[in-house]
Specification:
The chain is an alpha+beta fold. Among the domains are: about 90 residues, no CATH class; about 50 residues, no CATH class. It has 1 helix and 8 strands; from the N terminus they run ββββββββα. Strands 1-2 form a two-stranded antiparallel sheet. A two-stranded antiparallel sheet has the order 3-8. A hairpin with a 5-residue loop joins strand 5 and strand 6. The chain is rod-shaped, with a radius of gyration of 59 Å. The termini are far apart.
């Protein structure tokens, strides 16, 4: 006698972690296929055997009313084998196979807590995306400021090098070069010009040694 059993083990809920201590457990589907099989055989395998046929004649041992010999209920030749006949044994090899699967579906019982956890997870993801955007903005502004200040001082990477692409999109307009322009110089009028008629205005006499 052989006993076979299929055991289905329930797995834990799938837990998703979103950071900030937010963890949500989702439904779990367990699919367990199985295959069972048995085989039995007899050794040595003998499909036929020779069955002896015994002599069961009973013709002598007594006489009838006319004095003719007749049987007395005792075999005339007990144990004698007349011939052997071929007889099937009925021996067979037995094989069996079983195919199947077991399936379970596990879901949380409180859907409200599931919805709250999903809402908190979505909010936390948006917060992380905004923090990433802020970090990106700070990086780009710092790159713009540093590249611009260095370009004003005439410091930059050699064009065509690998690091030149860091400041390739930075432009400094009207700071590192003088743009073409014109100035008008007004001429003074006659009333504004000063004419001196006194020799004292020319200073003291010159002295030489």
């Amino acid at each position: 006698m052989t006993n076979q059993a299929i055991q289905v083990l329930q797995g834990p809920y799938i837990t998703n972690t979103y950071g900030g201590g937010i963890q949500c457990q989702g439904p779990t589907r367990n699919f367990t296929p199985y295959v069972t099989g048995t085989a039995s055989a007899q050794k040595p395998y003998e499909p036929y055997y020779w069955d002896p046929v015994y002599d069961v004649t009973d013709n002598f041992g007594a006489f009838d009313a006319d004095g003719n010999p007749t049987g007395d209920g005792i075999l005339d030749n007990p144990g004698d084998i007349i011939f052997h006949k071929k007889t099937r044994t009925g021996q067979k090899d037995n094989y069996s196979i079983g195919l199947g699967f077991s399936m379970t579906w596990s879901t949380p019982t409180d859907k409200k807590l599931q919805d709250l956890c999903k809402k908190a997870a979505a909010s936390n993801i948006q917060l992380m995306q905004q923090a990433h955007a802020n970090k990106r903005l700070d990086f780009e502004i710092a790159r713009l400021k540093n590249c611009g200040e260095l370009m004003q001082k005439g410091i930059m990477f050699r064009p065509g090098t690998e690091m030149a692409k860091i400041c390739a999109d930075v432009m400094v307009i009207g700071k590192n070069a003088i743009t073409p322009h014109r100035h008008t110089i007004p001429s003074p009028s006659v009333s504004e010009s000063r004419v001196s008629e006194s020799a004292a205005d020319l200073g003291g006499p010159l002295r030489s040694r």
